[in-house]
Amino acid sequence: MTAYLIVRAEVEEASREGFDHWYETEHLPDALRDFKAVSAMRGWSDVDPGVHLAYYEFPDLAAANAILNSDLIKEFVKEFDRHWEGKVVRTRETFEVKQFIK
Question: For residue 102, is it within any domain?
């Protein structure tokens, strides 16, 4: 069943505009392509405006975990840190959809 790699970022207020532009124009499109994800989406929390969430969709949990534990993601982390180290704190996790109702 479908799975997601979820990246939660806590962004300092002063960095939010630059972070949003960078994520929109560079990071999300590059990650979608290089991770070979099915889709990618992102947005800002309405509850905590400093929290940014990105979701990368994969066909199954094995594919999502393979990216999470890959050398490729280590390169993305290095690039992310080059831009945002000290300004953004983030966590990553995978999530498998167990039920979907439409």
Answer: no
Cα 93 → chain centroid: 9
Question: Of residues 1 and 19, which shows the higher confidence score?
Answer: 19
CATH of the domain at 47: 3.30.70.100
**Are the C-beta atoms of 1 and 92 separated by less than 8 Å?**
no
Please report how the helices 61-68 and 71-84 are oriented relative to each other, as an axis angle in degrees rounded to 10.
Answer: 60
Give the end-to-end CA distance of the chain in Å, rounded to a whole number. 15
29-62: b (≥16 Cβ within 10 Å) or e: eebbeebebeebebeeeeeeeeebebebbbeebe
Name the nearest CA neighbour of 1 among 53, 64, 55, 54. 64
The first and second tokens of residue 21, run together, are: 């532009």
Per residue in 20-61, pLDDT tens? 999 999 999 999 999 999 999 999 999 999 999 999 999 999
